[in-house]
Design brief:
Strand order of the largest sheet of chain A: 1-2
Strand content of chain B: under 5%
Shape of chain A: globular
Oligomer: heterodimer
Radius of gyration of chain A: 22 Å
Number of strands of chain A: 2
Number of helices of chain B: 3
Number of domains of chain B: 1
Largest sheet of chain B: none
Number of helices of chain A: 11
Number of strands of chain B: 0
Shape of chain B: elongated
Helix content of chain B: over 70%
Structural class of chain A: mainly alpha
Distance between the termini of chain A: 70 Å
Largest interface: A-B, 9 and 8 residues
Helix content of chain A: over 70%
Strand content of chain A: under 5%
Order of helices and strands of chain B: HHH
Distance between the termini of chain B: 56 Å
Chain lengths: 313, 97
């Protein structure tokens, strides 16, 4: 047994233990912390499977962003303090059984693979040079399965609309209630002044390098969103109201440019979302840049939550 | 030369791992929040610093080495500031429970 396989077994045991612990936790806050640790461990597992793109996304979205959303939910629950009643036993049993069924189905699918594993990987690699991209994951996302990627970004905006819809009518178009838990504090201000320039460079790098190495719009966008949230939480910039025109423009810019290029493809390359020969890479990079901005704004606003204040005239 | 560098890597990373171990023991054994934070920051500074130092000879060219050092600096920054924030909250409100 090599050192690496010992490491892998240890990692799997750790992931299972942290997963079980975060389910078993009684307190919501500890469970969320468990979930974040689980996400980080999972991203190490993806690195071990040589899926660095997935690892980056898991660390950024699965651990970081979702963790922040859940911490926000826990804090809101604490403020609301409403009904503390536990869900009844039959409901919990039903939920447990349904989860177990899904897990069993997945386990059967994973543990009994067919004799010959169907794969499109050789074909994907063979045609990749035509797109001018070096990262096969970017190739799949923007060339082979571009429609999925486009719809995924639209879903993000729909999710944001869902969050905004939680606002009472009179707050519509108001300022998201990003709660600032910490008092304005010189340490936090220092971090919010020092880190964003570094973070923005990292985000630009991730977006740019996505065409030939692991990275891309989602990872870059998450870093941008984190920097924006940091500056807002430290109180260095105010939270914008959701009716601002620039905000909405930035939100839809990514999907709109993607869609426009897709429709132009119908004329220039005879298929929706096809790129004219020779222009694939510049077009894809343009789409990635626009998507990075839109994803950054969308994730930041998702974390900021529904509008809770009306802008004073 | 290669052998010397490899031995250096093994020694430095092992020393780093030792600091992580010590920090973890401190995190579990120390009595209150402030001393536990103290144990954690030592791990960030020294443990990760030694690991990065040990990995420098193995880095992928100058840029790889620069990236490693940058990661260490960023972790130092975030570690120090998050510790300050937690310690400030503990001082103001007292530890939970």
């Amino acid at each position: 047994m090599t050192i690496l396989s010992i490491f892998d077994i240890g990692l799997v045991v750790l992931i299972l233990a942290v997963g079980a612990a975060s389910i078993a936790m009684r307190e919501a806050f500890s469970a969320v912390i468990g979930f974040v640790v689980y996400g980080l461990l999972l991203s190490i597992a993806w690195v071990r499977l040589s899926a660095v793109d997935v690892a980056l996304t898991e660390a950024a979205i699965g651990g970081g962003m979702t963790g922040m959303l859940m911490l926000g939910a826990v804090a809101r629950l604490r403020f609301a303090k409403g009904n503390d009643s536990r869900t009844s036993l039959p409901v919990r049993l039903a939920a447990g059984i349904l989860c177990a069924l899904v897990a069993a189905g997945l386990a059967i699918a994973v543990l009994s693979p067919p004799e010959v594993i169907p794969t499109l990987a050789p074909m994907a690699m063979e045609n990749l040079p035509q797109s001018g991209l070096g990262n096969p994951v970017a190739g799949v996302l923007f060339v082979y399965r571009a429609l999925d990627t486009l719809l995924e970004k639209v879903v993000l905006i729909l999710a944001l609309l869902g969050v905004w819809s939680l606002a009472p009518d009179r707050m519509w178009g108001g300022i998201p209630g990003l709660r600032v838990y910490a008092q304005p504090n010189s340490t936090l201000t220092f971090l919010a002044q020092l880190l964003p320039p570094v973070g923005i460079v990292v985000a630009v790098y991730m977006c740019w390098v996505g065409a030939k190495e692991p990275g891309g719009a989602f990872q870059g966008g998450t870093v941008l969103a984190a920097m924006w949230l940091l500056v807002m939480i430290a109180g260095l910039t105010s939270v914008p109201s959701i009716s601002q025109r620039w905000l909405r423009l930035l939100l839809v810019a990514g999907p709109m440019i993607f869609l426009a290029i897709g429709i132009a493809g119908m004329v220039l390359a005879n298929a929706f979302l096809a790129y004219p020969a020779g222009y694939a890479k510049p077009l894809i990079v343009a789409v990635e840049v626009a998507l990075t901005l839109s994803i950054g704004v969308a994730l930041g606003l998702l974390a900021a939550g529904p509008p809770e204040r009306v802008q004073r005239p | 030369m290669r052998l010397v560098l490899d031995i250096f890597t093994v020694l430095a990373v092992s020393a780093g791992a030792f600091f992580f171990l010590a920090g973890t023991v401190g995190l579990i054994r120390f009595p209150d929040a402030l001393t536990r934070l103290h144990a954690l920051t030592k791990v960030d500074n020294l443990g990760l610093g030694l690991v990065v130092l040990g990995l420098l000879p193995q880095a992928n060219g100058l840029f790889g080495a620069l990236k490693l050092v940058t990661i260490w600096l960023l972790v130092q920054l975030s570690g120090a500031i998050v510790t300050q924030l937690i310690a400030g909250t503990v001082r103001q409100h007292g530890p939970r429970e």
